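Data deposition worksheet. Section B asks for the primary sequence of the deposited chain exactly as it was used as input, without tags or linkers unless they were present during the calculation. Section C holds the resulting structure in token form. Section D is free text for depositor observations; keep each observation to a single sentence. Incomplete worksheets are returned to the depositor.
Section A, Depositor: J.P.
Section B:
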Amino acid sequence: MRAGNLHAVAANLPIRAVILQSAAALAALVLVSAPAGAQQVTGTPGAPDATTTIDGRYLPNPPPPFGGEINLNAAQSRPFWPPRIVPPAGAPNVLLIMTDDVGFGAPSTFGGVIPTPALDRIAASGLRYTQFHSTALCSPTRAALITGRNHHSVGFGQISEMATGYPGYDSIIGPESATIGEILRENGYATSWFGKDHNTPAFEASQAGPFDQWPGGMGFDYFYGFVGGDTSQWQPNLFRNTTAIYPYLGHPGWNLTTAMADEAINHIKMLNEVDPSKPFFVYYVPGGTHAPHHPTPEWIDRISAMHLFDQGWNALRDQIFANQKKLGVVPADAQLTPWPSDRLKNWDQLSADEKKMFIRQADVYAAYLAYTDHEIGRVIQAVQDAGKLDNTLIIYISGDNGSSAEGSLNGTPNEVAQFNSVEVPVADQLKYFYDVWGSDQTYPHMAVGWTWAFDTPYKWTKQVASHFGGTRQGMAMSWPDVIKDPGGIRNQFHHVIDIVPTILEATHIQAPVMVNGVAQKPIEGVGMAYTWDKANANVPTRHETQYFEMFGNRGIYDKGWYANTTPISPPWELGATPNPDVVNAYKWELYDLGKDWTQNNDLAAAKPAKLTEMQELFQTQAARYQVFPLDNSVATRMVMPRPSVTAGRSEFSYSGSLTGIPMGDAPQLLATSYTITADVDIPEGGGDGMILTQGGRFGGYGFYVLKGKPVYVWNLLDLKRVRWEGKEALTPGKHRLVFDLKYDGLGFGTFAFNDMSGVGRPADGTLSVDGKVVASERMEQTVPVILQWDETMDIGSDTGTSVDDQDYQVPFPFAGAIDRLTIKIDRPVLSPADIQRLRAAQRDNHSSE
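Section C:
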């Protein structure tokens, strides 16, 4: 409105219109006060095609003032449309790719024997980075990657499933740490997230919300993927935005790795056709190659025919190391760290059966990596097919941490069993799982010997933040319009927190100081654009200092020096209870990385003053970034109570059907006594179907009616099934079915003492119909720690996989009616004598270490 008309017209306008005009005038003052040097405007102001860039310090951008004219009659008035917000001219599309659990020496791009042509393509057209680092674990790396801040700074000192009530460990990315998705969306980008979401707190992952910590709440317009640390690629825990979907039902051979690429390709095509001028930010993070290793049979056959691993893991390390020197991704004077013969067998010490099984494991893992890279290549090709490759910044990070050692020394056909500290002997693997390894009949993980080899030339593995085997990732970056050194190698030290500032540099968008009224934590990373020019190939790194910490293992980098602790417990011993004195129980090492690329020559004894200086620097950095208190527990943190919708509750009631309650928001029936009461109505002709289930083929329970008879099954990690079954079919009409389990142990109440002896204990179960016991069984062992985490609790039908394939196939809907389902949990309570005993045992255990 013209200023001269404001007071004259206001007298004849409704009060709401006056308020709106006043608000617009206030917004105009805000805009005037903001610097406008970089603002770019197109079209006629107020016209439907007008666009503008924004200052970007305050998001969302304050609305502009109304610039038209309002009179009593529309014929004498002039409309005004606020300009559409767009990124700065020439801002690139961004395709940010990261795979999962891939060691530095696995892909061909960094010397490995596993073919990764898509990663090769990005490296050949752009740059290869040889000193790029993760945090050593999945969701912490991902939190750092999308926020540009250290993982403890944004609450992800560990995975959400182990969250504790400290700021650095609560697994909540707060509103003071807006993601790159939020920043780019508010600046006019189309934002999307495909694949793994391990940054939604496990205790906020249900359909009840809240959803502010889901991708849509973190700035991503579209999400297609799974929530959690991993999932089956055959029957995944899959979502479109916040809605669970089951596209695999009725489609044998369907695999998420391909389906996800299809979805991303279609999304990119849609964006390009609907609005070709709008740049996109696609965050593409497939499940590969985190366990379960689930490639298609064709890829297994293709890799097996190459005989990549017949030589064994020792010779494989030598081959990878030689390749790395030829490629120049390690210096000519780099040293190969020694094989840990005190912990891992040499290949020539293995039996023929062990070699056969382990080669099969490696073939399937390699097939999964090659398959994943192939599908990534299809997405990259889609960008080219859309005519946008030249102006697309592609960042391809090989792994969110080093290769995983969570499969035990022998590997496992069921990762869920391994997380419960249950190992499957090689003889049983050969007998029962060899031919189906990688299929939906397994949830497999390879042996640690391969893990160590795929981290060549470094020591240690995933989870170990003190050594580069856990944190050094191969990374390639291309942007044909800007990066003009195809095939170049960059050796500057960098970290995942440097990706957000790099994207902001590329897009000429500044980090906001306030988002949704909340002041922002500063971005803690350092942009990498200075490395793009060929003339700057060898300039010193601008990322001069970086701390590392995970499960008590820690390190500190500063200007070419690196100090770190020595792990006291290997990451494949998931049930270990290391000495909780994290401050004093660890030995420290010191390395001069300018002369010792691989952490091979410990200088701690020779340079004690330098080590002390580095240790003090770690303390300073740790205090700054919310690392304290240090905690080296693993299994005990998994069972700690968290603020889920079940917290503090012992009784749960449901009616009808309800599916998809995730593990973190469902009643937990491990290491406890409980009673399940189902009031059901059986129709004429029988009422088969699922009443209640949690977990699936690789660990869980089911309460159902089969051939008219009530059945309760405990699936003990796909190694054994304990079954209760009534002898007579239920008559039509109403019945009360009760399953009661009495647990013989102290349960999770012992976690406060770092003692897991109270879990996995025996239990006695009874199944009753209308007050009469119809079956009784004793379980000599129970599942100790966790059920199959990518499956949900379902009532009235079953999603995912069945707890017993011989009985039924999903979805197995209940043909009758569930009037009421009640779960009552009777958790063990520690007596004063129990507490005294546990404390004494803990003192004895650690005094003997």
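Section D:
The chain has three domains: 3-85, 93-617, 651-833.
DSSP finds 17 helices and 33 strands in the chain.
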